[in-house]
Every structure is written in C-alpha cells, then in structure tokens.
Amino acid sequence: MKTLKLLIGLTLLLVVSAFAFAGFGDFANGYDLDDAVSDFKLKNTSGAYVSLSDFPDAKGFIVVFTCNTCPFALANEARILALDQKYKSKGYPVIAINPNNPELKAGEDFEAMQKRATSQDYSFPYLYDKNHTVYSEFGATKTPHVYILNRENDALLVKYIGAIDDSVRDASTVTKRFVENAVEALLNDEHVKPAITKAIGCSVKA
C-alpha cells in the first residue's frame, strides 16, 4: 500500500514537473541575457508597421510589454513615458508592445490601444502583437515586462530583463530604478547590475 502511494506521488510530481518545464504559465524558451533578438514587424497605433530595423541609429531599445487595462501597467505608464523622454535622445527609445488577446481580456483591442495612446499622448510606438508571437519569442509573462536591448556588432543583444523599478504599485516609493540604472550602465560601457529582476504585474492574456 505504501509502495502504491509512493508511486502515485512520484507520478503526480513528474506530471507537474512536465507541465512546468513545458512552459505553462512561463516561457522556457524566451530570450536570455546576451541572446540576439530577431527583428519583428508589428502594427503601431498610428496604423503604420514598425520594426526595430526602422531605427538604424538607435544604440538599443527599451522594449516594454504592457497593455491597456492591467493596474500594474497603468501604474507604470507615466514611468514608461519618462523613460522614453529621457533616453530616446540618447539612443535608447521605448518600444511598447501589447501582447494581450482581446478575446480573453476586454479593453485590449486595437481600437482601445489607439484611444489609450492618443489620450495619454504616447511619445513611443505602441504595437499590437496580434498573433501573440513576439511576446512568446521574448518570453514575456507579465505586463509590464521590460527587455533592454543593446546594439553590438550589428546585433541587438538582451542586456536586462525584468521590472522598471522596485515599486511597481507606487512610483513615490521607488528606491531602485532598475531600467534607468541599466541604460546608464550601457551608456558608460559598464556591466548591467542587476541584469535580471522579477517582473511584477498581470499575467499576459494570450
């Protein structure tokens, strides 16, 4: 009897482990640090299609997976705008991408994205990952989820993955500005520390 219970327990553990490593709830095969990022072509809220190759003079990018309705994303909206205004002129523009499926989450359709971008006066592209492929290539699981890319030898390499700062809910209590520190390190040819932090937000609905 004890042997049977042990076998059942081991079987359940193997099943759970298989699901975890298959990527349920997280992407096992997303980009890691120093991976080269493939270019993509996504529709901007302006109606034009945008690719990373459209910015040949960029030193890199601050890629942010975000959305219209997640309270964590909305709490970081002003911070995302501030990052673009501070670093676009220094060669690191923000590229925002909405990975959510509007059939699974109301308020995430393209028209709602257009309204949001207009009402908040977005200074950066806000792209629609309609086929939900780009976010999975990156391995994004949350909104917001940030990837900082740096151009090296004609490739865009991942140099930071994680949160914007250490207070996703309240900008007034921020003590560590992860993204700002990472971009400043790259501008000064220094190593990014920390290079990975935990992204806190709503799970991607796709």
How would you characterize the overall build of this protein?
- With 206 residues, the protein is of the alpha+beta class.
- The protein folds into two domains: 29 residues; 173 residues, Glutaredoxin, CATH 3.40.30.10.
- It has six helices and nine strands, in the order H-E-E-E-H-H-E-H-E-H-E-E-E-H-E.
- The strands form two sheets. A seven-stranded mixed sheet has the order 2-1-5-4-3-7-8, covered by helices on one side. Strands 6-9 form a two-stranded antiparallel sheet.
- The longest helix has 21 residues.
- The chain starts with a helix and ends with a strand.
Summary, kept brief:
InterPro entries: AhpC/TSA (IPR000866), PRX-like1 (IPR047262), Thioredoxin-like_sf (IPR036249), Thioredoxin_domain (IPR013766). The chain is built from six helices and nine strands, in the order H-E-E-E-H-H-E-H-E-H-E-E-E-H-E.
CATH superfamily of the largest domain: Glutaredoxin
Number of domains: 2
* Range of strand content: 15-25%
Helix percent band: 25-40%
Task: Fill in the CATH topology of the largest domain.
Answer: Glutaredoxin
**End-to-end CA span:** 43 Å
CATH architecture of the largest domain: 3-Layer(aba) Sandwich
What would the principal axes of the Cα set say about the shape? globular
Structure class: alpha+beta
- CATH class type of the largest domain: Alpha Beta
Query: What is the arithmetic mean of pLDDT?
Result: 89
Order of the strands making up the biggest sheet? 2-1-5-4-3-7-8
> Can you tell me the residue ranges where pLDDT is under 50 for at least 5 consecutive residues?
1-28
The topology string of helices and strands comes to HEEEHHEHEHEEEHE
Number of helices: 6
Supply Rg: 19 Å
Largest sheet: 7 strands, mixed
Number of beta-strand segments: 9
